[in-house]
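Summary for the funding panel

The consortium committed to producing paired sequence-structure records for every protein in the target list. Below we show the first two records in order, beginning with the earlier of the two.
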Amino acid sequence: MLARRADSMFRQRRISVPKRTSELVALMAISTTLFLFIHTRDLHTKLKAMEVKLQPEDMLSGDSAAGVGGGSGNTAVSAMVRILTQSDELESLDAQELNNTRHAGVDVVFFNRVPKVGSQTFMELLRRLSMRNIFGFHRDHIQRVETIRLAPSDQLNLATHVISYKPPAVYVKHVCFTNFTQYGLPEPIYVNLVRDPVERVISWYYYVRAPWYYVERKQAFPDIPLPDPHWLKKDFETCVLQGDRECRYLEGESHEGIGDHRRQSLFFCGHSDFCTPFNTLGALQRAKKAVERHYAVVGVLEDLNSTLTVLENYIPLFFKGATQVYWDEVDRFTRINRNLFKPPVSEEVKDIVRQNFTREVEFYQFCRQRLHRQLLALRLPSTHSGA
């Protein structure tokens, strides 16, 4: 049944392609069907048993579990209120000082989106807001090989391209933080999202193994090879427990390419070679520095309410009404990019992985605490009371 559902989904999402010989079309159809069959047949039994236990996928959920963040959004904000009150810092928080939007030289939002943090949902939210708040919405086109670290000349080309849009405008792309001012260009309004790094790496692991992922890739690029069926069927827990190369996450290791989406901090650290080694102190410090100096808002997937509130107040030109737009169509938003092929992972295995993600965890906590400081600086009654 699962195979038929996947095949039906493929037929529904088929896009038009240039005419080819009947032999090539038939070969592609057979290859795709075989691929889906191999990938889904062994998952059928597992998924049936897991149907009611599937983890939250790549959706923005206001009260989703925070993992390493320390509780739900409201609980974490309450904890921050207590900490700041005890240190006498609460009353000194200044929303103006915490808002890097004031440093922007042009009304262009640059969303250099991190994969698997709810970024597709957030991108759709931006598209809806562009019609409501009257600004241009632009995104990068699908690429055969997505390069996130660019050479200096390519960074200049990207910055020039982004700034070329008539403001107010938004540009969205999977790419590392790019400093526009180093090329003599005005600073845009940087925004991004982060997620519990262990949950994120699990999400990525199953995302690149989902049947629809390769169907879409095959439709866009018919000549790309299909992956090894053994690699497709490998589950995350087995990968970790058997010490598979893909799931060892060794500190200081650099691994370029599609399989290396372990480093959430890389998208904030930048394009330097110093940013590529996994879980290193230098990369962590660079990423924190970029967030503090350049990003207007870095939202948190596990705390949507705080994220939307801060965005609406710190970047109102673009995000006015964001909370209403999202919750008015929450069912539609939460279905975007949801991966039903993602089985649950035990807390024991997550803890094993988390031991090697110490600095990625620290970066996530840093971004979350910054978001909560920005929220509390607004002095809204409900948050200031620790509710």
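The next record, for a separate protein in the list, is shown here:
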Amino acid sequence: MSEEVSVAPGWLTPDPLWVSSGGGSMDNITAGTFPPAAVLPPQPPPELLVNPWDIVLCTSGTLIACENALVVLVIWQNPALRAPMFLLIGSLALADLLAGVGLVLHFAFAYLLRSDSAQLLTVGLVVASFSASVFSLLAITIDRYLSLYYALTYNSERTAAFTYAMLVLLWGVSLCLGLLPVTGVNCLGQEAMCSVVRPLTKNNVAVLSVSFLLLFGLMLQLYVQICKIVMRHAHQIALQHHFLAATPHYVTTRKGVSTLAIILGTFAACWMPFTVYSLVADYTYPPLYTYATLVPATYNSVINPVIYAFRNQEIQKALWMICCGCVPASVAHRARTPSDV
């Protein structure tokens, strides 16, 4: 009997039914079961069924790519958006853009090429892109903390050099993580070593998950410090101007703290289910659980432009100039408040 194994589409371990549907293996089974005179006429190959969850991931990837391509285009074409903050937002948008492209390519290659090489390349691209996205979120958090803690010296050349160093470091580490499956750290030869996401090994996914938990803990600590600084500044301003607790300044400061909670809560809600599940599960678990936790993780790249780019006043002005050639007065004269942290 032939032992040729087909590459299953999608992110999961090959389905035995998919393997048995290959033309060569069915012919051998048929020939071994019936006498030559009773051999059935050749049947047309079965139609390629598409996993609905893969369609959802491909749709998410398309939305992610289009949304973040707009942010990258705005920052790239506007010379005024070259401050460290905008460079980090651009890095986040570029990482999410590549992640969206990786999801789309993985869907296309999985159902068209069905080869190990294409699968490794697309999975490596997705791993590197999402890693760069998470690292960029950490870099933005560090930048926001430094802008508040060192407010007087933040706009110096030292800050710009530190920002470039963070960008080089985060993209270098992300590329190394993405190259691991391509350079041999995969489970294509030993399915028992596969994680919930094929062809990543269980150890590889465990390292990624633990790294995410450490980064999340660091971001949580930084945001707690940011909240303390914002509240301390608000209290000092209130004392200087004899404000009461119910004044608009207090309201906007409280809104700023709520915004930080929403940012961190959204990040945790999107990534934590998949992170925890990938630590406790392996390739023997039902595929439904993998998709149910992986899809929300991709939504973080959909939400990132809304939180970090489209809420920014300067990017809003650039978008209005691109779309209609003018900037509304409500956007042009809006003052920055603590809710914009």
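Regarding this second record: The chain is about 70% helix and 0% strand. Confidence is low (pLDDT under 50) at residues 1-7, 15-37.
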